[in-house]
Predict the 3D structure of the following.
Amino acid sequence: MASLGKIARRTFLIGSAAIVGGVAFGAYYVTRPAPNPLKPAEGEAALNPFVLIDQQGVTLFAPRAEMGQGVRTTWAALIAEELDVDPDAVRILHGPAATAYYNTALVGDALPGKGYDKSDFMHGVAETLGVFGKVMGMQVTGGSTSMIDGFERMRAAGASARETLKEAAAQRLGVDRQSLRTANGKVMAPDGAEIAYGDLAVAAAALDPIETELRPATEWRLLGKSQPRVDMVGKTTGTAEFGIDVRLDGMKFASVRMSPRHGGMIRFDASQATGMPGVEKVIDLGTGVAVVANNTWIAMQALDAIDVEWDEAPYPPETDQIFAEIASAFDSGPNSTMRDDGDATKTPEGATELRAEYRVPYLAHATMEPMNATALYSGTRLDIWSGNQAPVFTARHCADAVGLEVEAVDVHTTYLGGGFGRRGEVDFAVLAARVAREMPDTPVQVTWSREEDMQHDFYRPAAIGRFRGAVQDGKAVLLDGDIAAQSCSQQVMGRWLGAPAVGPDKITVDGAFNAPYAIPNFRIRGYLAELAVPVGFWRSVGPSVNGFLLDSFVDEMAHAAGRDPLDFRLQMARAEWEPAAACLETVRDMSGWTGKTPDGVGRGVGFTYSFGTPVAQVIEVVDEDGTIRINKAWIACDLGIVLDRSIVEAQMIGGMNYGLSAACYGEITFSDGEVEQLNFPDYDAIRMHTAPVTEVAILENKAYISGAGEPGTPPSMPALGNALFDLTGTRARDLPLNKHFDLLI
Amino acid sequence: MSTQLTINGKSHQVDLPDEVPLLWVLRDEIGLTGTKFGCGVAACGACTVHIDGEAVRSCQVPLSDVWGDVTTIEGLGTPDAMAVIQEAWVEHQVAQCGYCQSGQIMQAAALLAETPNPTDAEIDDAMQGNLCRCGTYPRIRAAIHTAAGKMKES
């Protein structure tokens, strides 16, 4: 719940605008370089409201990508809570690509600083600096930031709309606004008279929007309670529209084949493909080929029939050589030293020292819906339909690709069949735009094969972690970690903005430097590997690497100290940050953790802090005639304020299963410059029979609201590795774990 | 090359080469997009439909080999008139991204038709070919049990 001081300091204002037959409300940032998006400057047609009321009824805008995390439901509930409408009775739309819909929290979270120690002041600074999100036009869904970004702003938009509608009613009825109530999309007078919002919309548009205090959590009707998801019936009946489901009159179906080495194309011969029944056009894309046909499958078959000679990869062609490059990053100076408590250069006298090196591989996102986009190019306009996490960047890059101004591009964002960071990229939309440019006035859907999708990802970076620790009298006295990897943030910023980010890279060490553990000598340094392997944001990003690296080593330290691994962490967490300790205590109690397991059963604990959310997990494995099965899991997390328990629970379990999939089976390797994994048989995931029975506890001890989409992923990997160590005595220091253990598949 | 198909009780005449998989006939020719493309190699189950009541991977069935009446997710129920199993899916709020759920539901419907009250082990056996990258498995399992109970009542 927002305090009064917080509201006074908040950085956004409410705006309103008249529309045909109604009114629009929005909440925009004060410290913005652009004007009120509801009242665009001359020549700008954009109207980017969060609430729109006209004769058709009430429309709420949730301009964040719905990729399964439930954002459309909770975002709408934030507005509906204060507006007094029933989410069932209103339309909820994604809306257009618009800089007005930028995500302040995403950039605020990129600031250095541990996060969990944010004072009120620091929190304010993060919000203010969030304005850079605006500068960059960052309407991005990611970083588990939607609820942080929308929590106050959307309720304020709803509250202002409500009070302004009440004022319109008050003037019509000749009564005081304070005497009016609102419910179910209507204003109600003391005498029982009711006026629907739609009937007040035109009058409300003539008023200055009224700002008001937000309701306390004790008065919430919707928030804090699990809502039926607005996308559930559609996704259960096959009627929800994903990007791949867009159907337009006269639409053609296409597919692409780009270099499996992420480089250039020397030559191609399409003579076998052009005559195939159903094939309409072969397009030379310079770095690959597209086939347009009357059916997607036919297009894919034709692509297979094209003989192509590819140029070499812009990176070392074999996995071992790539890892050697990553290791060589240690030879240069550190890019960052984001934690340096005490003196980590020497081992305290009398302490027991241990050292270990950990490695994690590149990973693909492997969304269930392969990459695709649909485009219609008319010569002067371009329309793009796609499930994407970054519509403004999509519009900008597609405009550049076809030689149009960004104003001539409309991006229609559909549901996403999985995002996990992959759909924050613009490559699949740009390819569709380029194909459409060769087919003027004909809508074209460009769908990638699964093989194309897996070979052309922006992978979670591989990493190497070198750790030196020391324990004394049962306690950690030193933890010194060096982590080397490619910087995915530098690459992503380079692709989004055309200029790579520079300076200390938080993401490479995220989840390690800000581990809420009190250790007197604690240093984390990051080293950047200069490699051209395409890398990007993968669900939980840096912590997906560092959770396994750091927390596995912490487990080794606990054993070296002769301590129970959960107790060892708990002692360090309690001295640093109480909400972290509470997660560990909760998961200990839920799982009935005793530190001892019967023969044939192993248990491990994992703990990470990521995206503002501490999460502790206990995982239990069982040996069944030599095959190891993940049997049970317990999760305790703290989101500060829980807006929808059912959705958070789903995200925690889903995030964990995504991490376990990677921990068990996930690995992208290279040979002759090409990614060796092509399809799910090479890159499997947790399935019905391999998913653990899971219990989730959601705590609210911490001061700030934080996200749920990603923090469930990082602790799953060390928790599983630690459980396997408990079961077998074998410490796996690299992933995936099926290389070391006979895991159930 | 004209092929006659019965899909969700409706007759369709399809003019496509014999080898085009049923999945792509449904999606790109008939316009029934509820059945999803996931892998093309029968490794994910997103394209699961029924042929004469049997759950099959439509990405592996060439047009000329379709041996009976086809039922897709659209034929199972509609938003206004959902099948019992779909109601159970909504009750348990199963879907996250939702992309795999058509296939999950079609697979589960075939399981329940054959095994009206499945054990967890039977659910494991029947459902392990259906991948869900969002990891919705616990709720899928709960929804199958709920649907089994409701179908027994009715």
User: Anything to note?
Assistant: Residues 1-9, 120-132 of chain A have pLDDT under 50 and may be disordered. The CA atoms of residues 315 and 532 of chain A lie 5 Å apart. Chain A has three domains: 4-229, 243-312+371-447, 332-362+458-739.
